[in-house]
Amino acid sequence: MKTAIQFFALILFSLAVKAQNNPDWPNIKRYEEANSKVAAPAKGEKRVVYMGDSITDFWINNDSTFFTHNNYYDRGISGQTTGQMLVRFREDVINLKPAVVVILAGINDIAENNGPSKLEDVAGNIKSMAELARANNIKVVISSVLPANAFPWRPAINPVEKVSRLNSMLKQYAAEKGIVYLDYFTKMVDDKAGLPAKYSKDGVHPNLEGYKVMEPLAQQAIAKALKSK
């Protein structure tokens, strides 16, 4: 198990390094072809886009039917920080003309994948995505960061306090702006402020059982967002 986790951590670390050295820093090319094949929404269609990092990126591989059966589009990219997501937000969210966007972001900023960043800036990037969405008549769901008490690819960083603080910032912003806040954290955290082994192999990324906890929570949040003014 330890060897598998170390191997997985090495993959994530290499992705982070590539992101720093890649001229297509936000990785806009990742979904360019897929986006070009997405037709305009049909009348009455309630299209949903999930914007995120590896937790969103791996979701469709763990449970593809959740997306195909619900007209959901996965636009997660492994290793990404909120700054990268903000840059590609128009291409991967706004241009798809969804009714709702579900934003799940911030853990890689805390892991310093692209270097140190202030939590206020991380929250600011998420707020900017929400503001862009609302300006384009897209309902917003802001997700809490999932619990994590260690990073396999950044063992020197203890994320517990920052995860808690970022979630508090996002929850407060959502309440102030009338945006739906999706609280994965409370439903998934263990007594060590981490993601329990039954939900994850590495303490950061959910397994299928973890995603099965997240899915009904996401759908409830989407339904609430669709009803909001």
* The CATH topology: Rossmann fold
Number of helices: 12
State the separation between the terminal residues, measured CA to CA: 48 Å
- CATH-level-4 superfamily name: SGNH hydrolase
Q: Which quaternary structure do these chains form?
A: single chain
Give me the strand/helix succession: HHEHHHEHHEHHEHEHH
CATH structural architecture: 3-Layer(aba) Sandwich
Detail the poorly predicted runs: none
Number of DSSP E strands: 5
What is the alpha-carbon Rg in Å? 16 Å
Architecture overview:
The chain is an alpha/beta fold and about 230 residues long. About 50% of the residues lie in helices and about 10% in strands. The chain has 12 helices and 5 strands. It has a 5-stranded parallel sheet, with helices on both faces. Helix 10 (about 160-175) links the parallel strand 4 (about 140-145) and strand 5 (about 180). Helix 9 runs parallel beside helix 10.
Write the SSE topology.
Layout: H1 2-21, H2 32-36, E1 48-52, H3 54-57, H4 59-62, H5 64-68, E2 72-76, H6 82-87, H7 89-92, E3 100-104, H8 107-110, H9 119-135, E4 139-143, H10 160-177, E5 180-182, H11 184-188, H12 208-227
Parallel strand pairs: 1-2, 1-3, 3-4, 4-5
Helix pairs in contact: 9-10
Précis, in short:
The chain is of the alpha/beta class. It is built from twelve helices and five strands.
Name a few traits of the molecule:
hydrolase, Rossmann fold, Ester_Hydrolysis_Enzymes, 49% helix, single chain, alpha/beta, 229 residues, five-stranded parallel sheet
